[in-house]
Amino acid sequence: MPARINKRPYGEERFQKRKVMEKEEKVITPGEETGESARKGRRSSSRESNRRGMDDSRPREQSDWEEKIIQVRRVTKVVKGGKKLSFRAVVAVGNHKGQVGVGVGKAAEVIGAIQKGVVDAKKSVINVPVVGATIPHEIVGRQGSSRIMLKPAAKGTGIIAGGSARSILELAGVGDVLSKSLGSRSPLNVARATIHGLKSLRTFEEAARLRGISLKQMLG
Length: 220
Description:
The chain is an alpha+beta fold and 220 residues long. The protein has a domain at 66-205: Ribosomal Protein S5, domain 2 (2-Layer Sandwich). Helices cover 40% and strands 26% of the residues. The chain has helices at residues 10-24, 35-57, 110-123, 163-172, 187-199, 204-211, 215-219; strands spanning 66-79, 82-94, 99-107, 126-127, 139-143, 146-152, 159-160, 177-181. The chain has a four-stranded antiparallel beta sheet with strand order 1-2-3-4. The chain has a four-stranded mixed beta sheet with strand order 5-6-8-7.
């Protein structure tokens, strides 16, 4: 008796293989995450929510200091093998309440130079005596070959100045003043000359104390 051969239709065999493959594979639909990706997503969302909660609960401090960029220029330094390019930024900071400073920063990028200039300016802040909205007396500030004359002005005159001198006077909180540049007009030297002039100002009380008389006698 011939041996019996078990023959299966070809279509049925393919159907069984497809069912096995569908069981082994798990199809992830859009918006559905499983395993490690889902755990990472939950961790990142929890961190973000915690960060948002901390930011909302933390009080935000508003700084009174204002920054103004006076000059940004590209400078070169000759080194062995060529030239090294960098940026120099002259920055002024002030709080419009009688405090102002000027700083210089150098870096390979403009943003870095400005940040260094702001740090340097805050280290050299000076106090400016302001009487009303003007300066107490006439003064001439000097820096190198730059000279700038500052004179008190009547109320409503405004700031009669230009360039870096105007920026520094505005940041210092001076509202009425007359000025005239008498020497070199280099922005950095003019800025430092203005700082020198404002630093040399004296109040009426200081002048009376240095003379050894009362304020009424000096003004009378």
